Automatic annotation (TrEMBL), chain A:
It comes from the Bacteria. The keyword Lyase applies. NCBIfam families: IMP_synth_hisH (TIGR01855). It is found in: Cytoplasm. The active site is at 89 (nucleophile), 195, 197. PANTHER family: IMIDAZOLE GLYCEROL PHOSPHATE SYNTHASE SUBUNIT HISH. This is Imidazole glycerol phosphate synthase subunit HisH. GO terms for molecular function: glutaminase activity; imidazoleglycerol-phosphate synthase activity; lyase activity. Pathway: Amino-acid biosynthesis; L-histidine biosynthesis; L-histidine from 5-phospho-alpha-D-ribose 1-diphosphate: step 5/9. It comes from Desertihabitans brevis. GO terms for cellular component: cytoplasm.
Automatic annotation (TrEMBL), chain B:
One of its GO terms (biological process) is L-histidine biosynthetic process. GO terms for cellular component: cytoplasm. The keyword Cytoplasm applies. GO terms for molecular function: imidazoleglycerol-phosphate synthase activity; lyase activity. It comes from Desertihabitans brevis. This is Imidazole glycerol phosphate synthase subunit HisF. InterPro entries: Aldolase_TIM (IPR013785), His_biosynth (IPR006062), HisF (IPR004651), IGPS_HisA/HisF (IPR050064), RibuloseP-bd_barrel (IPR011060). Its EC number is 4.3.2.10. Pfam families: His_biosynth (PF00977). CDD domains: HisF. It comes from the Bacteria.
Amino acid sequence: MGRADDADGADVVVLDYGSGNLRSAVRALEATGARVELSADPERARTAAGLVVPGVGAFAACMAGLRAVSGDAVVRERATSGRPTLGICVGAQVLFASGVEHGERTDGVGLWPGEVEQLRTRRLPHMGWNEVRPDPGSVLFEGLDGSRFYFVHSYGVHAVEALRERGARVTTVQHEDDVFVAGVEDGAVSAVQFHPEKSGAAGARLLSSWVAALPSGGSQV
Amino acid sequence: MSVAVRVIPCLDVHAGRVVKGVNFTDLRDAGDPVELARAYGAAGADELTFLDISASFEGRETTREVVGRTAETVFIPLCVGGGVSGPADVDALLRAGADKAAINTGAIARPEAIAEISRRFGNQVLVLSVDARRDPAQPSGFGVTTHGGRRDAGLDALEWARRGAELGVGEILLNSMDADGTTAGFDLEMIRAVRAVVDVPLIASGGAGTARHFVEAVEAGADAVLAASVFHYGTLSVAEVKDALAAAGHPVRRDDLAVAGPSAATT
């Protein structure tokens, strides 16, 4: 997959560390003009201009899969060295300190404070197109305040203030009476709880904004 | 601030081709699921469902190839049903490019398949498709059928939906076999009854004829509405359904950003 023969566009690696639909993510990123490669190679993940960490299913299984390809170490190193990383859905959740599912706690990559826990709503999963509210100054959500993105999850992070205190821009979403994290932008690391690759034009715009901010690319759309 | 009501066109696919007449005048090939999916994506559909009615292994393989091309072209969620009986089938569909799988007779034959699938992939990938009809012989008055409504599964529809949610499906797709094809409206009583026993999202299907019918289904408790014929024959557009929902005060998604969607970049 990918279009490695194309000379233009930012170099993006989608980390392939388990099952799930990755074709849409690869194709939606390609549509922004990026050169996209699906890879489980830690060295490629380490050196790419942009790294996308997808993820579906259980937190613990995702963390195990991520560790198996040294993805946790790669993500930490990229965060330190300022190379952009984008986590999607459970790939976003694993960036936090920990996750709790069915009473069992699993350590995450630990970039951010907060625990991934079951949403405090009656209707679960939180499934469908919901409106997001980004903090002022968001790059990822520029022009997307109030846009709807496609969510499908039962777990999430409520540590909105703790993230803001460490200087991150937080985008929130509300389901029933529960308000939780929909997006985080913290230096080189960004994460979204929803699926931009499944979110039509709004998702395409968000991915384009992320790719455009990568070193040496994004303007060749 | 709440989740929008999803409006979901459903395509019956046989060996990679759309069956049932489709009356989209501006399509080069109305029998190509990818073309139709793209048209519905552009028309504002919130999700798509492919029901694979292929009877053969080869037919299903062909459909999977179509699922892959759709996932690379249309950037909204895609659910695929037909022939799902366990984790291996779901894995194949997800790898092909589906976001969700719908299970029906496979779960009736072996309910533990639900738990096996949701343990491995999470409950959000699994939709329990229930073909139900009025059945005085069942305690709730609603029974489950198989084979397109022709056979009685011997299950109470409410009990089956409740059990499915308990075993680990993330959604219930409730098809009224009585209302299906009548265009006389959804079976609202059945929607209300199932809504009362499950907390997972509920997709109502069967009987849609007018935009008002969709509003009634939502007011009876559906989180999403699915239809085939009214969309395929052009009786109603997705936008008309959303206009009616919005006018009745229900949140809908409008994909009206002034940017080129990913589909514009495809050939």
